[in-house]
Amino acid sequence: MAPRKKQKAASKLHAGSNPHKQTSSSAQKVSDTQAPAPVAFQQALLDVFCRAFHDNQRDQANATIQEVKGHLFMRDFAKAFANREYLDAYALRWSASRALGYLDIFLHGDLQPVWLSDINTASSPDNNANDPLQTTATSSSGGACRVACIGGGGGAELVASAAAALLAPVPRPKAEVRAVDIADWSSCVEKLTTALTSPQQLSAYASESAKAANKPLIDPGRLQVRFSQHDILNANEDILRGLLSGVHLCTIMFTLNELFATSIARTTAFLLALTDTMALGSWFLVVDSPGSYSEVTMGDGDAATSKRYPMKWLLDHALLEVAGDAGKNRKWKKRVSDDSRWFRLSPLLKYPIDLENMRYQIHLYQRIEPEDS
Ligand SMILES: C[S@@+](CC[C@H](N)C(=O)[O-])C[C@H]1O[C@@H](n2cnc3c(N)ncnc32)[C@H](O)[C@@H]1O
User: What is the pLDDT along the chain (373 residues), one digit of tens a residue?
Assistant: First the structure.
């Protein structure tokens, strides 16, 4: 896309501001140091969370957040996500800063190939890859970008991936986000989608120029969101296919370690099913707490007989070794891996409650034609 046209697309998305000014004349250029989204755009995303979840009852919001925090500290996730009030409080407090962190990850130079590349939709199970009449269909960069977010009910990935897909160096005309979660986040996802795609409510006394400038952050025609409530570890083939077929990117943010802690065997089986379902060329992104926060104990807990495995090791083992036929027929290529990164919030951002910087490990894989290693 010509730079001017691209700029126009970005400014349409966010009332006149281009989130990352393109310095290169080539839209396809992959840089290592993609500029982060400008503070004004990050502020607009925080405002979306405020509009969706903050009802100005600051004391009540803080009290509910403290309750959720207590459950999270005890790693009692079932209690932390037990009711709608808790889910909204989680989204207001944690998803907001995570959305900015995820946008930063998505816009980083090492993820640019995700937004630029095509996937081979003929290799999705929806299509019969063995049918000789089936021509190879590749979804073009000009098509919709589909993102699936496992454990993504809280909305951080939804907001960040919608913004990133539409603002990528070659912006997609439409973002389709599929979020799946074991908890019922449907109302939270709906509130966020509405806040992203509706203009702000202005006072009746707002000037005509303010009214004219009052546009939604994202044009409703350019964002399609679907939420499904499932335990991903019990999802059958049909469910996985519905969720993952045709997706460019599948994310699992701050959720994989929890899944491994629930069951290493079932999580490994899920990763193998994911391998069979995702199209050639598509991407799988794992982000989680770094270091010993993301370790899983195998055994009865007795120090003498149990062993602790880093999540990263279990992940590589499942995708590169087990799915890849003991490394002989690899189906995934690891494109990015970093054991510790920081996302730090700009001090210029304004929000009614405390936000948090994010430290994380990151691993990005691309689904490839099986290759001999
Ligand atoms: C720590 S939260 C992370 C939320 C979000 N991904 C983020 O980064 O802010 C973990 C999420 O995974 C979900 N989850 C846990 N086990 C799950 C499972 N078996 N299937 C689907 N979702 C699950 C939880 O309900 C919760 O929304």
Answer: 333 333 333 333 333 233 333 333 333 333 444 557 899 999 999 999 999 998 767 778 889 999 999 999 888 888 999 999 999 999 999 999 999 999 999 999 899 889 887 776 655 544 433 333 332 334 444 578 999 999 999 999 999 999 998 787 777 888 999 999 999 999 999 999 999 999 988 888 999 998 888 999 999 999 999 999 999 999 999 999 999 989 999 999 999 999 999 999 999 999 999 999 999 999 999 999 998 778 888 776 676 777 889 999 999 999 999 998 877 889 999 999 999 999 999 999 999 999 999 999 999 999 998 865 5
5 Cβ partners below 8 Å, 6+ apart?
none
| Torsion sign across C-alpha atoms 182, 188, 194, 196 | negative
Interatomic CA distance for residues 358 and 355, integer angstroms: 10
State the closest ligand 1 atom to the C-alpha of 234, by its place in the atom list counted from 1.
19
Q: How far is CA 311 from CA 74, 286, 302, 308, in A?
A: 19, 10, 20, 9
Exposed, middle or buried, 243 (CB in 10 Å: 0-12/13-18/19+)? buried
Which of 165, 155, 360 shows the shortest CA–CA distance to 256? 360
Q: Which two tokens stand for residue 178?
A: 């599929």
Name the closest-CA residue to atom 14, ligand 1.
Answer: 151
Q: Which CATH number fits domain 33-372: 3.30.1360.30, 2.40.50.100, 3.40.50.2000, 3.40.50.150?
A: 3.40.50.150
Nearest CA to ligand 1 atom 18: 231
Show the tokens assigned to 119: 């996937």
Domain boundaries, the chain: 33-372
* Angle (deg, nearest 10), helices 39-53 and 156-167: 140
Ligand 1 atom 26: residue of nearest CA:
151
- Closest ligand 1 atom to residue 98 Cα is 9
Q: How far apart are CA 91 and CA 97, in angstroms?
A: 9
The two structure tokens encoding residue 61: 């919001």
